Every structure is written in structure tokens, then in C-alpha cells.
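As a warm-up, study this chain.
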Amino acid sequence: MSFEHRVSPELAGQRLDAALAKLEPALSRAQLRRLIEQGAVTVSGAAVKPAHRLRAGERIAGAVPEAQPAALEPEALPLSILYQDADVVVIDKPAGLVVHPAPGHGGGTLVNALLHHCRDLSGVGGELRPGIVHRLDKDTSGVLVAAKNDAAHRSLAAQFKAHSVLREYLALVRGTPRAASGSVEAAIGRHPTDRKRMSTRTRRGRAAVTHYSVEERLRGASLLRVRLETGRTHQVRVHLASIGLAVLGDPVYGGADARGAELGLTRQALHAAVLGFTHPSTGAPRRFESPLPPDLVRALAALR
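Now compare it with the structure written out below.
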């Protein structure tokens, strides 16, 4: 990935790292600082420091090195497999399980477990995330599908891109909406000041649509069924929080009033309950469901 920008009068006088954080929202400020310090970013052809003050008309150019394939090892981790054939494997992912290796999670992931259970998976869809077509956050439980060959990977990826995959979540949220159902249509991008969070208050977000309906009204809370029309990072959590219905137990978007501890929750109360897609080989519609896990069942009972 490479980028090039001409410094506008609005950016003149700003630090290079701060300006680049606005110009390249997909990259964190820490990543950009490292690139600048490594000489991978130049200003009008010269390597400079992150604190370099920009002048109008200067040209910023840089390149992000390609990710290097990780040495992924199969691990005999327990997996709850809902369905498996020569093309796909459908898993009921527990909360706490990271989907694919990343900094801080080099092993013990769903990918490591899949490599053990599906010996022919390595390399499907790329070396970095073999078989992975979509993902769930570490602390979100529920149904997830992985591809077992490249043709299946391409088919599923195309379905996700076309928004034809059925994805329904169950969420315990703070508050009770007045209407029985509703939708949130708001672009999602990096938070303007906290790069680790996503937000609807962004100038460079991607279109996102979430539909919800009330399954049950509780004491100061609600059980919602949420259907995704798009699949942006943290979409359910961000969209619901933006309309005052933060997911319970979510310390990132629920704030101090997350209420996780009093309900015995150690994670956000969000569960991928339904996943439906067209089978890559047969063309038949397939639908898979996962019941609420015990920790969310207990939280729901406490709120009744």
C-alpha cells in the first residue's frame, strides 16, 4: 500500500504525524510514526522526523510494507462445529477466542484451531488468515463460517461483499427504545481522537446500516435482535451506542455505565445468533443458529 498527498493550506503548520493521521485514517498514529522514523515517508523527497512542520504545497509520499506471512501452527483447541463438509466449516465461537493471529495474539486463535481440525486449510484465502472470510470480535460469541478451499472462499467473500449474507445478533442493551423496531444508518470510521475506537462522528467513514427489533423489554434494559446490512468493524456496538442503547458489559462503547460486573458479565453482551448464506458448491440456502450462551442467559434472567 502506498499513498501520496499534497499539503493543503489547512494542514500547513501541523506536525507530519498528526496531519497523516487525518489523511490516512486506516493507519494508527503509532503506525505512521514508525513509518516516518523508518524513512518510509518522505516530504518533498526528503526523509524527515514525525514532528516536521508542514508547509502548503509540500508533497507527502509513503509506503506501507506488505505483511509478512506468519508461521501459523495447528493447535488442538476445542471447537464447537455446527456443520462441516468439503467446502465450509461452521463454528459456534465462544467469547474470549480471537479469530486470527495478530500482535499480542500469536497463538491460541480460531485459525490455529482450524488448522488442526481441517488439515487441508493452510493457504486458503491467503497465508495470513487462512480460511477466514469474516470475523467476530474476541468477546463476541456465536456463529462464524470459514472456507476450506479457494473456490468456497471466493464465493463466500463475494456474498459478504454483496451484503447477501444473513447476520442476526442478540444484544442485551442499556435502555429501552420507544419503537418496537428501527434502523441506524450512519457511516463508521476511526474515532477522531481515539484511534483504537470506531465512531459515527467521522469525516471519512464507510456507509453502514443496522436494523433492530425489540425481543423483550427488561428492567432498564432490552434484549434486541439486530440484523446487519453491512459489516463494519464494531458496527453493532457503535451503532447501538450512538442511539443511546449501548451493549451491556461493553467497556469501550458502554462507558462507566456498562453494568457488566453487576450482571456477572466479563464481556459485551453480544451474540451472533444466526448466519445464513448460499452454499458455494450446491447453491442451496443454508442457515445456522446458536442459542444464547450460559453467561448471557444468566444476565438475561437477572434483568427480568
